[in-house]
Amino acid sequence: MAPLSTLLRLPLAVLWRALLVRLPRLVPLPILHYTSPLGPHPVRVHLPSRDPGRSIPVLVFLPPTSSPSSHPVPVHLDFHGGGFVLGSCLEEAPFCARFARELGAVVISVDYRLGPVDKFPAAVHDAEDVLHSVLSLSAPRELSALLEPQGLALDREHISLGGFSSGGNLALNLAQSVEGWASPFEAGRGKEDKEDEVEREIPLVLFYPSFDARLLPSQRTRPPNLPLPHPFWASLSNVLIPTYLPRRLAAHPRASPGLAPRGSLLPGARVLLVLPELDTLAGQSGEWVDRMEREGRGGDLRVRRVERVKHGWTQMPDRWLGEREKGTKEEVYAEAIRFLRGFWEEVDAGKQE
């Protein structure tokens, strides 16, 4: 939660809405023993930020181990949704814990900065800084202190990215380079390095990401079977979202990664894209898929379309979902795990040839 003094400087119309949507962030971590009983349960650590005097909070999920690992383990970076103004890592916990259990991976869920207190590109910077920490040859002190007693180390050749909605926007950002703003995967590499080095393989698991931020949710085309939102929630988005991303910057390729120039997606990126039918982002998602196919990247995409479910259904508690929704949620989670497991098995097999 932002310092009270910072929040109190906001206009009243923004302040009360910001306080309302941030209330869930006050829920303490022990709640996960009830909402995510299978575990593993995360530890909160802080990773370095480019900004002096601050750090980036993350939740780290360690894979269950009966004995110290004799080799590095994969690492998955996860980014929650919420339009850059709400949401928290807690809603990701069951998903992240499952990835840690079934993939044997260290999962890092990033508590990136949000509006209205912080402005674009604060969330992008936080995402990049966390990835830099993972790519660093020496892990940051707090992360090392957590991993080393368990005999764990991060396998920097097995890094995957994922996110939901605005979190998918951030994950895609990390796998793209635009003019004057390189991906952390390419930062510090010159032209000759890029030509000589084998391209890094980067799997992405994107659940209904935001590709194009130029329109507010209330301005997007709605699928025929999607009911109108309550006016209160529509006004909430209309007021809060521009406090993070001013409209004049909405077309920036780091705000709208689906608008990035041709060739921005890194050559080694492979994407599993999960798209619900009842979503105001459906139109822009289809446009991005078509564009990738025109650019010759269709073979690097696996698109999973799910009928009759709404945006965000995978992050809702099971007790809020019908049987069909619970079933499709289980299916896409299992598919995401198969996608990553199969991806790394294929990469490792290629290295042995």
Provide an overview of this structure.
The structure is a single chain. Helices cover 35% and strands 18% of the residues. It has helices at residues 4-7, 12-22, 32-35, 93-103, 122-135, 141-147, 166-174, 191-196, 231-244, 282-294, 323-352; strands at 43-48, 55-61, 73-79, 106-110, 154-164, 202-207, 269-278, 301-310. Strands 1-2-4-3-5-6-7-8 form an 8-stranded mixed beta sheet, sandwiched between helices.
Annotate the secondary structure layout.
Layout: H1 4-7, H2 12-22, H3 32-35, E1 43-48, E2 55-61, E3 73-79, H4 93-103, E4 106-110, H5 122-135, H6 141-147, E5 154-164, H7 166-174, H8 191-196, E6 202-207, H9 231-244, E7 269-278, H10 282-294, E8 301-310, H11 323-352
Parallel strand pairs: 3-4, 3-5, 5-6, 6-7, 7-8
Antiparallel strand pairs: 1-2, 2-4
Summarize the structure.
The protein is of the alpha/beta class.
Q: What is the ordering of alpha helices and beta strands? A: HHHEEEHEHHEHHEHEHEH
Backbone CA Rg = 20 Å
Main pleated-sheet profile? 8 strands, mixed
Helix content: 25-40%
Structural class: alpha/beta
Number of DSSP helical runs: 11
Instruction: Tally the beta strands.
Output: 8
Which strand order spans the largest sheet, edge to edge or round the barrel?
1-2-4-3-5-6-7-8
Mean pLDDT, nearest integer? 92
Taken as a percent bin, the fraction of beta residues is 15-25%
Instruction: Give the overall shape, derived from the CA principal axes.
Output: globular
* Low-confidence parts: 190-197
* End-to-end CA span: 50 Å
